[in-house]
Task: structure prediction
Amino acid sequence: MENLTDLKIYGQGSSGGGKFRDVSIKGSGQINGDLECKKYEVLGTGEIKGDLTAEEVMVKGQFKFGGQINTVDLKVYGESNFQGDIFADEASFQGSLELKGDLNAEICKIEGGFVIDGLLNVEIFELTMYWPCKVSEIGGTNITIKKDAKFSFLGLKNRMTPRSNKGFLEVDTMEGDEIYLEYTHAKIVRGKNITLGPNCQIDRLEYQNSFKDHEKSNVELAEKI
Amino acid sequence: MNQDLISKKELLKITGISYGQLYRWKRKKLIPEEWFIKKSTFTGQETFFPKYKVIDRIEKIKNMKDDISLDSLADMLSPDLTEKRVTEKELKDRNIVSEATLEFSREEYGETNEFRFEQIISLYLLDKMFKSGKIGHSEGKIVFQLFSDKYQKFKGKNCELIFFRKMGVSSCCMVPDSKDVHFEETIKIMEIMNISELIEELKIKIF
Result:
């Protein structure tokens, strides 16, 4: 194993990137190239212009990722913007997420809202929606879409984030095995077992085994294949 | 592009896999990104696949997934070059490269004890082409030279090698997809070798 050093940016600073053991940014930091490290931690704000490869990535605050992310464990609390693709084993987001590329993960939990231009490819996907969300395509095994949690952190989050009943997930195509949906507007939903909750608007739904409709949802065309 | 395409829905029906599996394999890069072809149809956007390639690949994955993990399967199927090194003796004993081609390599590389994976591909490629009888010894050198110089540029991507003759003069080129290349009539294409497929074959033989 090479002898790698840590990179620390406390206050304000920048780095050209490179290979490190642990990288931590507290305050405001900018990385101008590709970065490879074991642990990547941000408290505050910052930007990385290149690709990031790390075992563990944790961001609390606001961060912009300019390149591709390869990691085992990705945790983001706050506001994040990704220009490239994300590859992670586990990914969890709380807050708002903006992503231009694809999100690939085994397990992905999102609380908050997102706009994803690419494909969301996740084995187990759980979304708890606080704001309107938008994505072009979702594919995976277990897909669960819910609108805000009943009690989270003593209900504080619900009080802080304005509850708007207009919030829903907008998606073109969704394909999976086990699907549960609430407040979702989709053009096509395909799956083995599909269960609908309230307030879904689906143009076309194709299922293999079972399909449970909800009285408050509207499906234009449901077909067993 | 006049290859046969198959829609995602049909593919799942024929192969009996689920959406979850298909997406998992895509995520693990067992099915290359380029095979997912988006087209608009009357029901909106649909994904299509090159029919024979994808069915063949899925059968392969289905057969092997019980024996080895998806990650090592991905290593085997992806055209990334592995770190593995193999000795000359092993290549010969395992029938990967014939003695004649090894002799050719001795002239080019000099005496080598261990071959890098990239060198093995070039030898394996040459071996196949020599065996098919379509190219001669001296022509092997052109192919070899091209491959050693330019394969780096295709690293991790699909790559095909076209060997052709015009009026008795031979030449070769490397392209991402041979279907998109068109030649004038007097050029005779002797051989098209798909490098990604070769690598797959080779990885199965080596591991």
Q: What stands out?
A: The CA atoms of residues 122 and 152 of chain B lie 12 Å apart.
